[in-house]
Write a structure and sequence with these properties.
By secondary structure, the chain is mainly alpha-helical. It has one domain. Helices cover about 45% and strands about 5% of the residues. The chain has ten helices and four strands. The strands form two sheets. It has a two-stranded antiparallel ribbon with strand order 1-2. It has a two-stranded antiparallel ribbon with strand order 3-4. Helix 9 runs antiparallel to helix 10. The longest helix is centred in the C-terminal third of the chain and has 18 residues. The protein is globular, with a radius of gyration of 19 Å.
Length: about 240
């Protein structure tokens, strides 16, 4: 997961406002044209990587995700999901969630299954907050974790979110809700980390590391490198 800076296109914003005002429109009955425009804008904003797992995506293998779920009602009975259905700040582009073997889904597909069980739980992790992104870390084998390492069995027991801290809820999101440590994703991150370690093993000049870091921080032809934040994490540590 890497930081996403929202940049709402004015023409798209006007289309959404008009759609909402003219026919009291909701997300499910958006026209195909507006949905296509929305997805394209989100993909360009994110550098054509999934907002959660950072795998490469494009217009044909991605979909639109709502950070605040469309049916989410808060503890006070307020329908935040309905209110934010067409809020551009609440939308992300995500992958199909099919990288893991069998029926082991990830990203928003895994989240959808979880939400059916716990409909009133919000998502605590977000790629829109830099303070959260800066606390996401990666073990040598590609295991993704937040703040400090916690055993999977201990995370699995963090089921009562109302009694957990924000940090504990974010750990739960990474492991259980989004399933970002399924074996295939973890392996892919581990391969990148090991390749970077071999590449930079004998690099003694910080300028060379900084140049490689900038490559992963920068969009090339509107696209980020796949799993870019994994590389940013490793290279930033080497500069300390």
């Amino acid at each position: 997961m890497t930081l996403i800076v929202k940049n709402k296109p004015s023409n798209l914003h006007h289309k959404l406002v008009k759609f909402q005002q003219d026919i009291n429109g909701t997300y499910p009955n958006l026209t195909r044209e507006i949905k296509d425009d929305l997805l394209k804008a989100l993909l360009e904003e994110q550098g054509y990587i999934c907002a959660y797992c950072m795998q490469k995506i494009n217009q044909s293998n991605s979909s639109i995700e709502h950070i605040i779920g469309q049916s989410f009602i808060d503890e006070n009975g307020y329908n935040l999901g309905e209110e934010n259905q067409l809020n551009y700040e609440n939308l992300l582009a995500v992958c199909e969630g099919k990288s893991c073997k069998g029926n082991n889904q990830h990203c928003d597909k895994s989240r959808a299954v979880y939400q059916d069980k716990v409909p009133k739980r919000r998502l605590f992790i977000t790629p829109l907050e830099n303070r959260i992104i800066q606390n996401i870390k990666y073990a040598n084998n590609g295991f993704i974790f937040y703040d400090d390492f916690t055993e999977i069995k201990d995370i699995e027991e963090m089921s009562n979110h109302t009694e957990l801290s924000e940090v504990e809820n974010i750990k739960y999101d990474l492991q259980e809700v989004l399933n970002l440590n399924c074996e295939e994703l973890k392996t892919k991150r581990g391969i990148l980390l090991n390749a970077l370690k071999r590449l930079t093993k004998n690099w003694t000049h910080k300028e060379k590391i900084e140049k490689e870091l900038i490559r992963y921080q920068t969009k090339t032809s509107s696209q980020y490198e796949e799993m870019c934040q994994v590389a940013i994490y490793h290279l930033s540590k080497k500069l300390k």
